[in-house]
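Quick one:
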Amino acid sequence: MDLFAEAFDDLNDVLARQPFDTMSTAERLQVVQVRALLSISQELSRIHHDGINPEYDDGR
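Output:
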């Protein structure tokens, strides 16, 4: 099970039913929080696979 993909799809389903500009402030904040968590998840996954700075060369 890919939780990132599932959460991303769920968020898109919600936004398809109710556009962002018609949401209340509380609902918008929830969407922004989910997007932030998905972004953090994506970045942590990239670090896990590629390392923190894969292009770094310390000259050794």
